[in-house]
């Protein structure tokens, strides 16, 4: 994932693809459900 793509996702200007989400979970060595729980426990989604 490029830095500019990461920045857009972080700002909420774009959404990652399913493939990117799976790759991020793999890179963090967490299950997808744990990643989803971490997201839902964070800031409210717009």
- Through-space gap between termini: 23 Å
Number of H/I helices: 3
Number of DSSP-assigned strands: 0
**How are helices and strands ordered from N to C?**
HHH
Q: How much is the average pLDDT?
A: 84
Q: Into which percentage range does the β-strand content fall?
A: under 5%
Stretches with pLDDT under 50, minimum 5 residues: none
Q: Give me the Rg, rounded.
A: 11 Å
Helix content: 55-70%
Quickly list its features.
about 45 residues; mainly alpha; 3 helices; about 0% strand; globular
Quick structural summary:
The chain has a domain at 15-46.
Describe the overall structure.
With 46 residues, this protein is mostly helical. It has a domain at 15-46. Helix content is 65%, strand content 0%. The chain has three helices and no strands. The protein has helices at 3-11, 18-28, 32-41. The termini are far apart.
């Amino acid at each position: 994932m490029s830095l500019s793509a990461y920045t857009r996702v972080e700002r909420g200007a774009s959404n990652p693809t399913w493939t990117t989400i799976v790759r991020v979970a793999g890179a963090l060595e967490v299950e997808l459900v744990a990643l989803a729980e971490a997201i839902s426990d964070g800031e409210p989604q717009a």
